[in-house]
Predict the 3D structure of the following.
Amino acid sequence: METLLHLVSLTASKLLHFSGLSDYGKALKTTKMEEKALEVYDVIRSIRDPEKPNTLEELDVVTESCVEVRDLGEEEFLIIIKFSPTVPHCSLATLIGLCLQVKLERCLPFKHKLEIYISEGTHSTEEDINKQINDKERVAAAMENPNLREIVEQCVTEPDD
């Protein structure tokens, strides 16, 4: 019975491949991931830099290409963001990561898992910062600090909010 199921599955797979339906399904999935990535980018592009009056988009800290979305199944997605601090020794890189975390958790209307990283080679302590901004306990503890919370709120609040 198992062999028969395997043959049926293999035959169906070959039929889909030769008919082009398999490629069509992949194209639809790719388009959906690209749409989700743009949706994510739209949320983070307006975050303000903690030191400057500019947005992260204006400073090229985030770009469309820094957002990747993968399908985890059952309408859940993995969002991977790789941002680039303006200088390799940026003292506020962790705070920027925190702002990204907070804004996405608040604003995304779909189920997701989030991974935020500093782009490789763009910061002198990227490994340590990556651990910090992806540690849920550290993020929660940081948001309990009233001073940090106020700074994050200023950065993530839209100008017309």
Q: What stands out?
A: The first helix runs from residue 2 to 19. DSSP finds six helices and three strands in the chain. The chain has a mean pLDDT of 87.
